[in-house]
Write a structure and sequence with these properties.
This protein is an all-alpha fold. The protein is 44% helix and 0% strand.
């Protein structure tokens, strides 16, 4: 009895791997990391009200907003 070897076709293995460009620049990622550290240490305040930021999502939003103002590579805001 002959054993059959199972191989994937070459088109199936290469079709799943596509090179894409970065969505966020490394410097924008550093801005977000800085804001996250400030939030964790209790020093991050929101804009107008000046209340302490406790939500990680809000800290990320503040970091991305600052990166956009500085002209770094960040996708535009989604509505």
């Amino acid at each position: 009895m002959a054993t059959a070897t199972h191989r994937k076709s070459s088109s199936a293995t290469t079709s799943g791997h596509r090179k894409t460009t970065r969505k966020y620049s490394p410097s924008a990622q550093k801005d977000v990391a800085t804001e996250m550290k400030a939030m964790k240490s209790g020093k991050l305040k929101s804009g107008r009200s000046g209340k302490k930021v406790t939500d990680p999502k809000q800290a990320i939003a503040i970091g991305l907003s600052k990166a956009r103002k500085e002209g770094k590579k960040v996708p535009s805001r989604s509505s």
